[in-house]
Amino acid sequence: MKLLHLTDLHLTGDPSGQVRGVVTLESFRACLRSARQRHPDIRALILSGDLVQDDAGGYALLGAVLDELGLPTLCLPGNHDVANAMVADLPDRLMSPAGLPIGTDWRVLPLDSTLPGEERGRLGSTRLAELAARIEATESLHLLLALHHPPVRLGSAWIDDLGLEDGAALLELARRSGRVRGILWGHAHQAFERVEDGLTLMGTPSTCFQFAPGIDQFAIDQRGPGYRIVQLQVTGRLDTRVEWLE
Fold first, then answer.
1. Considering only Cβ atoms within 10 Å of each terminal Cβ, which end of the chain, N or C, has fewer?
2. Got the DSSP string for 86-118?
3. What sign has the CA pseudo-torsion 240, 5, 145, 101?
4. What is the pLDDT of residue 54?
């Protein structure tokens, strides 16, 4: 069972709209075409925030693309999203407490890590308690968590300052559950992958432009758009890789 993870689309209401010199709708469509050509067996999509660049008009464009695609899709909010418009324009694709079932053994549980008016993220005690209850209530054997903000430090000071403040608490909850196999995120506009205590931690690059990794000051990387493929095995094994547009 294959999932496609896309993040940080930064769409605008103008189909030709650009962010940092990239026509973001065109770049998003190119990522989708590449993924579908290479992986025609994709079962579902996870879009983990910053779907638009502070422009509610981008949701109509996104909805039209997803309608064409016709695959189950789970949309999460990021710090650039417009909450009310996202609810109004993507009602059938928003995160829900039940998450997204994948086959009979897996389920993706989405998390809202946003703080109003802030670039950084936080879950807080209430959301963490709700997640613990959702994990307890679900009958799926294997769980994958998805959110916008990185729960671990990535080695870039400016990005790490804007990550998930209570990431350590999230990782501890995931470890204690015994059923969470991995965590997906965006926000950082760069690829990251590490396995810790049986958890596969996965940061996915943006569908438009990337931030230079491993440096303490803001800089745009020369690398182009990318996305992540996640293969879910019935045994609970998780295989994943980032693919870049050529």
1. C
2. HHHH-TTTB--TT-EEETTTEEEEE-----TT-
3. negative
4. 94
> Which parts of the chain have pLDDT scores under 70?
95
User: Given this model, what pLDDT does residue 159 score?
Assistant: 94
Instruction: Report helix, strand or coil for 61.
Output: helix
Tokens of 161: 């300052």
- Residue 211 DSSP one-character state: B
pTM, two decimals, is: 0.96
Q: Would you state the torsion angle of the CA atoms of residues 243, 227, 162, 199, taken in this order, to the nearest 10 degrees?
A: -80
- Among all chains, which residue has been given the structure tokens 């430090």? 153
Residue 244: CB atoms within 10 A of its CB come to 14
Question: How is the chain split into domains, by residue range?
Answer: 2-244
Domain 2-244 CATH (choose: 3.60.21.10, 3.40.50.1820, 3.40.720.10, 1.20.1280.260): 3.60.21.10
pLDDT score for 104: 87
Q: Residue 136 is encoded by which pair of tokens?
A: 């307890």
